[in-house]
Write a structure and sequence with these properties.
heterodimer, A: 139 residues, mainly alpha, Helix Hairpins, 0% strand, B: mainly alpha, 3 domains, 78% helix, extended
């Protein structure tokens, strides 16, 4: 049982670069001590999944919007992590990731403004924020 | 690229904080609590941005997301009636079957994404390790030569300067397009949020709809006439 937990933890936090196979424990410690690109990406992936789960399971349309913000933010984290990685490899256009993040934030702001406008208009006409009751296009 | 000493400690603190706050955002019963948890998640991610050396983006994240978008969310939560959800009279999640299916889907997505990330990172980190260490050393030397801040305890990074230069040199057209997008969003949300009365006084309602609504509220016709 312990072994299973350890190996599943290793699956999440395996340090890709260092240590020969078999020395997985010290590789994991190394990974915990020096989080690198893959750790940033894992955090981004988990945030993304949480956002997707929120969009798929919640009924409140406002919370669904918040989950979408979470998804966009996870994408931003990936952009920044990649930008940092490229900076460390000496790439010429390492800052592109940061620029892209600015645009993602702009689009997220526009999306929130429009989406919440729609929510207000919908609430005024249908008196509900539950998505399963908003079935105007269903027949 | 790898963080070290205190940086890695803060990385884990903020990473776990971001993920837990994200989870609570999705699971909170009260929409206001959801919004507040989302704010903490965004702040934690901004801290991760700082750790990754993107100070400008972290500032933008705090100002735009936390200061702007989330305040907008809180306003809208205030405008709509969510008391049924808070009292526990309404189910906050979808039906059992939908939730189960989507959670299975999410679990598969987690496995796939983490597998891909680990495989990809393996390849990326294996490439030219030696050259990268040399570059990191160079970077450290460069950082040591940066100007000291007013308190003398830390150094002023050149990140904001570099981002500004790249933004206007290579992305000035997308920048302008983004400004137009924001303008359209402002106009669109103002148009969407108008009441029927406001629409009638701007003579912007379908005549048939106006006739129907005027039975309930005869004032609407006068508004229409006044505008002409």
């Amino acid at each position: 049982m312990n072994n299973f937990i350890l190996s599943s933890l290793l699956f999440f936090f395996q340090e890709a670069s260092a240590a020969p196979a078999g020395d997985a424990m010290s590789a994991m410690k190394e990974g915990l001590k020096h989080p690198d690109l893959s750790k940033f990406l894992v955090v981004g992936a988990l945030l993304f999944i949480i956002g997707v789960a929120g969009v798929l399971t919640r009924r409140n349309i406002i919370v669904i919007f918040m989950s979408i913000e979470l998804i966009l933010n996870a994408a931003n984290l990936n952009f920044i992590a990649m930008s940092r990685y490229l900076e460390a490899t000496g790439s010429a256009n390492a800052l592109t990731g940061q620029i892209f993040t600015v645009f993602v934030i702009v689009v997220a702001a526009a999306e929130a403004a429009i989406g919440l406008g729609i929510v207000i208009a919908l609430y005024r006409n249908k008196e509900t924020i539950w998505i399963d009751e908003i079935d105007l296009l269903k027949w | 690229m790898p963080l070290s000493s205190y940086e890695s400690l803060f990385f884990w603190i903020f990473a776990i904080a971001a993920i837990f706050a994200g989870l609570l955002t999705v699971m909170a019963r009260n929409a206001v609590h959801s919004a507040l948890f989302l704010i903490s998640s965004l702040v934690a991610v901004a801290a991760l941005f700082v750790l990754a050396g993107a100070e400008f983006i972290a500032g933008v994240q705090i100002l735009v997301y936390v200061g702007g978008v989330m305040v907008l969310f809180l306003f809208v939560i205030m405008l709509v009636n969510v008391s049924a959800e808070e009292m526990g009279r309404e189910e906050i999640f979808n039906k059992q079957r939908q939730v189960t299916t989507s959670l299975i889907f999410c679990f598969l997505l987690v496995l796939g994404l983490l597998y891909a990330v680990n495989k990809g990172a393996e390849v990326l980190t294996r490439q030219n390790l030696a050259a990268r260490e040399q570059l990191a050393e160079q970077q450290t030397n460069q950082d040591a030569r940066l100007r000291r801040s007013g308190t003398g305890t830390s150094r002023i990074t050149k990140d904001t300067e570099a981002v500004g230069a790249v933004l206007y040199r290579y992305a000035s057209l997308p920048f302008e397009i983004a400004s137009i997008l924001l303008l359209v969003a402002i106009i669109g949300s103002v148009m969407l949020a108008r009441t029927l009365k406001q629409e009638a006084s701007a003579d912007d309602v379908d005549p048939d709809v106006l006739k129907d609504e005027a039975i309930k509220d005869p004032e609407l016709l006068n508004l229409d006439a006044a505008s002409q």
